[in-house]
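An example makes the point: we print one protein in full, the chain in one-letter code, the fold tokenised, without further comment:
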Amino acid sequence: PSSIQFPAKFLKKDRLLTPWRTLPIGILYNTDLVKPEDAPKNDSDLLAPKWKKNIGMPDHSRNTTAAQFLVNMDKYFGKSVGEWVNSIAKQQPRLVVSFLPVGKTIVSGEAAVGITFIKYLRQVKGPMDYVRLDKYLANANYFGLSRKAAHPNAGKLYIEFACSNEGQKIMAGKGEFPLSPKANPAIKGAGKIKVTTVFMDVPSGKEFKKLKNKYRKIFLGKK
């Protein structure tokens, strides 16, 4: 019931799935290695020579959200982004299995900058900040309850608490971007991020398979 307060665009008509947060993706950087004035200003700036071999990214051939991010860059730039994808691959980014290791790679200094979820500013301890962009690509997360759940009422209670203002504020304190209008993430400027978020289209399973093969060839030179 508490999810009724969330933006209508996230609510499913059949209510089989319940939304609870969004996951904005941005550019994070190591503040010990990069001064704010020297950080990339946008995704195009990542193509500068100084970032070659110094960018952390999730492996688009192994991670579906990473592949989803690249294919939705068309939506972000408002034009075909094929040239940008090929150019970022030529930067020889440090590819890791998913988004969380990108944050750890930045903190450890293995990469000075990286593309990952902004929430890791709070969830990965270390010298990091994020680039203030005009807009951010993101996807939404939903709760679902199994029809065969051993304790369905406990599951319903958990989902209701997570969607309540109390639950949403707890998650906001962890750096999450919950949907409650009364819960803002504990990240500086998070309110603007929520307003300037562009939600990604979700490819089908068949499309994901093609995308993974495509990006494996582009980034790894493998078929």
Q: What stands out?
A: The chain is about 35% helix and 20% strand. The first strand starts at residue 17 and ends at 30. The longest helix spans residues 205-220. The chain has a mean pLDDT of 93.
